[in-house]
Amino acid sequence: MTVLDAFKLDGQVALVTGGGSGLGWAMAEGMAEAGADVVCADWYENRAREAAEMIRGVGRRGLAITADVSKEADAKRMVERTVAEFGRLDIVIANAGVAGEPEPLLEEPVESWQEAIDIDLTSVFLTAREGARVMIPQGRGKIITISSITGAFVGRGLRPGYSAAKGGVVGLTWTLALILAPYGIQVNCIAPGYFKTALGRGRFLQKELDEETRRSIAEELKNIPLGRIAEPSEIRGLALLLASSASDYMTGCVIPIDGGYVVR
Known about the structure:
By secondary structure, the chain is of the alpha/beta class. Helices cover 44% and strands 14% of the residues.
């Protein structure tokens, strides 16, 4: 097998939560381009369908599933339907998440905290657990969790619940990596920096910026050695590495992709 062959995903099935937009869409596309059939799960039915159509346009089988993966029943149903349709599950990317609007600490309601914990952390646990139920009998599998540099490294979250949840994803990754290693399953984590997605009010996508937003972006760019905000497509290479046999000796890794933000 050549080094390029190690990155091929022919004959494999990948499941991407939050696959209907942003980084999830980009990673789903990358999985398909590398040869995998892809299940795109999303909270919004229309987004899941559009993503599945995109996968089919790449020439692979695509399946849309509408699910709130912070709910146990939805996570179970999502994985069961994946296996019913494709007969296997090789790659799970637990990407679904929200950032929410920052609020003053003393005014933040507990409901806001709980929403972040449920969607950004509990959903990762449920998705990984249900995926592992399928992968353990197979004796192999790849689970990729998505944290954030603001939860994993730099301690500057958008809000307490978000930072706590994203930090929790790192701890969860380490624990899952240890538990699942004897079964031939690798668990690794991507910690993105700033990307042009709708997360965080989509300020990096806006064409018309008010002065406050313009100043805010300028300040963030000072902290990024590469001096720019990333395109969603730029996460595909790292996701492919962690999804493919090229990373078979990697597990429990937390990898920032942030233009140098955490080492500045």
